[in-house]
């Protein structure tokens, strides 16, 4: 007989098996084996919200196998992920397999390598029921809100909608930002931008008008700008003052889940869900040449900035050996984790700093390599010395023809810097949404004469707040305390898949449907879409985890008020139906001529006549593209797979079986005249097997420039 170790993923099981040897049987539960069945509420409200769990559909055979293995083992160890969800999975496993809950059979490790795994196996703990209760409380809360509120929203708008405890707040944030943008009134302002040289140097540097001898002046229109330009006719320019200084730039801390998702979005263009999938793969590990089977990063769901002293020492040793001692700070740098963080795990870091991205590259997919590089560089940079910059700020005096022989003058400012010591920036720069428009300035002393090369008056308008990107929305969720590291990716994924929010380029924009749902909830369920209320619920879940409050009492406090609000909303909205413009189409009904509308049923969207019940005509809802089928010449239409992924197929299916994941374009093949489709890597291809034409897609910016030249 052997010891049985149960983990969540088959890949993780394979990795851990290599460390533990033949006396251990390592197998996977493949996620949850028990959950609340979807067909019913599955929560007994009258019996203190008792959950009615059942074996996940399709896992009956797996559970049977796990039971057999457990019965034939000397010991069963539960090594699921080290967080609330993982703790709950272990509890479900223990319950189903009949393992005593007071037994020390729970194994945890923050990273998957031989030392961490063997240490965890050697020191099992009891299942932490406070963690389990916190997960149960979240699951029951989400089920109560989702299953009670969603039918109400669907009835008032259209079938098939959902409302959630956290997702609705995320949609509200996007909707509120859109309202800010609509209400924004741009204000005009002008800048005077100049270029100067400091003879004998011919290199030009930039400076901007700042004011006159009395102080700053704001140019609000063209007349203001023209007045200053008039004053500056035949002006003489000189350096009024030159201020030199030094500034230090400190590295960013190692990644948390949120900052990793934000940086991967900005630098790599990864959506949060994709980032977490790749991070999971890096955590579970692979064979790395020279290092064997190892997980490459620590656990990727964390809001802590803490790192182990062992990891710090290994990182410092690598930096000193490869960059030099001057790249280490005099005192180790410690980052302060915010007060609301759970701090259950370290920050995200490489498990072995010596495994550089270049060493790991052979073992990784291109996506894994990109994300591992980001994590490795961010961690190593966080240990390194500051970047030291020498700064220069020059105030320029401009005396125009009309101001000569007076004390009057105008001022311009120029600033720049040079890097004295690059420090951590030799390795990593945090991604930001703004570029720093500073550079090196020539050597100038106060009193030096300057020569004007160019002066332009430029009109500007104040800009509305930017729409959220996926990264900035996750940042806002974290800052406001809505959601947790384990939920950020699923929140964004849910609100986009439900079509409450759409992506335009990288920006998130609410749909009419999303705005209608938020308006309905704000009017009748203000707490559900209240950021502070939702954040306080998250805080209460943390208190459950730390054994500070009872989760059943917490559920009662929430549900008693929620239930009364729901009943009042039903009474207030009786007979009311909200109509959306986006549900209207320009497709006429063949039977009565009315323009058909989009409806949602059990199997998705379809077209229906608005004259129901007089006219009951319906037909499938099809999104047409401009492309034609390369096989039969029929229209290519957009379709959805069972898992919700978009693909394209022929309208004549099943008579024509053409389908592709490649996106149709408006372009025609120069060789055969058929439609071109855009493949990964920006390749435009003809999908006619007898043609095979391909070309590199031109960038949009290049196209726009070419059109201007034409």
Chain-wise SSE layout:
Blueprint: E1 2-7, H1 10-20, E2 24-28, E3 34-35, E4 43-44, E5 50-51, E6 54-55, H2 60-71, E7 73-78, H3 84-97, H4 114-122, H5 129-156, H6 167-183, E8 188-197, E9 205-212, E10 215-216, H7 222-231, E11 236-249, H8 257-268, H9 272-284, E12 286-288, E13 292-294, H10 309-322, H11 357-360, H12 366-382, E14 387-399, E15 410-421, E16 449-461, H13 470-480, H14 488-497, E17 501-504, E18 507-510, H15 512-524, H16 531-545, H17 551-572, E19 584-588, E20 595-601, E21 604-608, E22 618-620, E23 623-628, E24 635-640, E25 646-650, E26 659-660, E27 663-668, E28 675-679, E29 683-686, E30 694-696, H18 700-709
Parallel strand pairs: 1-2, 1-7
Antiparallel strand pairs: 3-6, 4-5, 8-9, 8-16, 9-10, 9-15, 11-14, 11-16, 12-13, 14-15, 17-18, 19-20, 20-21, 21-22, 23-24, 24-25, 25-26, 27-28, 28-29, 29-30
Helix pairs in contact: 3-5, 5-16, 5-17, 6-14, 6-15, 8-12, 8-13, 9-12
Helix content: 25-40%
Tally of separate helices: 18
Structural class: alpha+beta
Distance between the termini: 79 Å
User: What integer is the average pLDDT?
Assistant: 91
- Rg calc: 31 Å
Strand order of the largest sheet: 8-9-15-14-11-16
Instruction: Name the beta content range.
Output: 15-25%
**Biggest sheet, open or closed, and with what strands and sense?**
6 strands, antiparallel, barrel
Gross geometry = globular
Q: Which runs of at least 5 residues are low in confidence (pLDDT < 50)?
A: 432-437, 701-710
Account of the protein in words:
With 710 residues, the protein is an alpha+beta fold. Helices cover 34% and strands 24% of the residues. It is built from 18 helices and 30 strands. Helix 5 runs parallel beside helix 17, helix 6 packs across helix 14 and helix 8 runs antiparallel to helix 13. The longest helix is centred in the N-terminal third of the chain and has 28 residues. The protein is globular and about 100 Å long.
């Amino acid at each position: 007989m052997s010891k049985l170790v149960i983990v969540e993923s088959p890949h993780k099981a394979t990795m851990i098996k290599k460390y533990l040897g033949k006396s251990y049987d390592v197998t996977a539960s493949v996620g949850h084996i028990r959950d609340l069945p979807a067909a019913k509420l599955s929560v007994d409200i009258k019996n203190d919200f008792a959950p009615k769990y059942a074996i996940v559909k399709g896992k009956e055979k797996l559970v049977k196998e796990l039971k057999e293995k457990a019965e034939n083992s000397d010991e069963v160890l539960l090594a699921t992920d080290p967080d609330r969800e993982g703790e709950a999975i272990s509890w479900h496993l223990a319950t189903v397999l009949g393992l005593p809950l007071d037994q020390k059979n729970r194994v945890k490790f923050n990273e998957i390598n031989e030392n961490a795994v063997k240490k965890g196996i050697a020191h099992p703990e009891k299942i932490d029921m406070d963690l389990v209760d916190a997960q149960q409380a979240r699951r029951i809360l989400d089920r109560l809100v989702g299953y009670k509120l969603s039918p109400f929203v669907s009835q008032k708008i259209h079938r098939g909608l959902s409302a959630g405890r956290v997702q609705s707040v995320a949609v509200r944030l996007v909707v509120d930002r859109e309202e800010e943008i609509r209400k924004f009134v741009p204000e005009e302002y002008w800048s005077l931008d100049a270029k100067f040289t400091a003879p004998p140097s011919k290199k030009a540097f930039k400076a901007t008008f700042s004011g006159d001898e009395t102080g700053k002046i704001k140019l609000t229109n063209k007349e203001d700008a023209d007045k200053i330009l008039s004053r500056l006719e035949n002006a003489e320019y000189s350096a009024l003052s030159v201020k030199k200084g030094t500034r230090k730039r400190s590295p960013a801390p190692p990644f948390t889940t949120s900052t990793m998702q934000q940086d991967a979005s900005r630098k790599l263009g990864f959506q949060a869900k994709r980032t977490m999938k790749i991070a999971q793969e890096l955590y579970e590990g692979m064979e790395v040449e020279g290092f064997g089977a190892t997980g490459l990063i620590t656990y990727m769901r964390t809001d802590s900035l803490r790192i182990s002293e062992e990891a710090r020492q290994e990182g410092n040793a690598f930096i000193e050996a490869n960059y030099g001692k001057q790249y280490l700070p005099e005192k180790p740098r410690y980052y302060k984790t915010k007060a609301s963080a759970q701090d259950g795990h370290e920050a995200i870091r490489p498990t072995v700093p010596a495994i550089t991205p270049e060493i790991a590259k052979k073992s990784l997919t291109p996506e894994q390599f990109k994300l591992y590089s980001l994590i490795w560089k961010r961690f190593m940079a966080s240990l390194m010395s500051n970047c030291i910059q020498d700064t220069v700020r020059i105030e320029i005096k401009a005396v125009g023809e009309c101001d000569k022989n007076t004390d009057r003058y105008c001022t311009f400012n120029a600033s720049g810097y040079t890097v004295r010591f690059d420090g951590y920036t030799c390795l990593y720069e945090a991604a930001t949404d703004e570029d720093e428009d500073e550079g090196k300035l020539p050597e100038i002393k106060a009193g030096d004469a300057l020569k004007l090369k160019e002066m332009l008056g430029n009109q500007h308008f104040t800009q509305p707040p930017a729409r959220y990107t996926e990264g900035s929305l996750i940042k806002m969720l974290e800052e406001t305390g809505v959601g947790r590291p384990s939920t950020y990716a699923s929140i964004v994924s849910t609100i986009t898949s439900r079509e409450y929010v759409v992506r335009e380029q990288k920006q998130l924009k609410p749909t009419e449907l999303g705005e209608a749902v938020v308006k309905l909830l704000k009017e009748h369920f203000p707490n559900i879409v209240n950021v502070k209320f939702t954040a306080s619920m998250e805080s209460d879940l943390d208190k459950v985890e730390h054994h500070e409050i009872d989760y059943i009492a917490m559920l009662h406090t929430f549900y008693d008020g929620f239930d009364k609000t729901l009943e009042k909303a039903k009474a207030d909205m009786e007979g009311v139906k909200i109509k959306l413009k986006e549900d209207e189409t320009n497709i006429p009904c063949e039977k009565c001529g009315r323009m058909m509308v989009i409806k949602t049923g059990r199997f998705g969207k379809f077209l229906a006549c608005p004259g129901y019940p007089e006219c009951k005509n319906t037909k499938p809802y099809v999104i047409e593209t401009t492309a034609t089928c390369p096989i039969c010449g029929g229209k290519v239409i957009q379709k959805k797979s069972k898992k919700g992924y978009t693909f394209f197929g022929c309208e004549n299916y099943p008579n024509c079986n053409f389908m592709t994941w490649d996106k149709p374009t408006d372009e025609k093949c120069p060789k055969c005249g058929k439609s071109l489709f855009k493949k990964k890597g920006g390749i435009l291809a003809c999908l006619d097997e007898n043609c095979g034409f391909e070309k590199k897609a031109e960038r949009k910016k290049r196209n726009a420039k070419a059109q201007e030249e034409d």
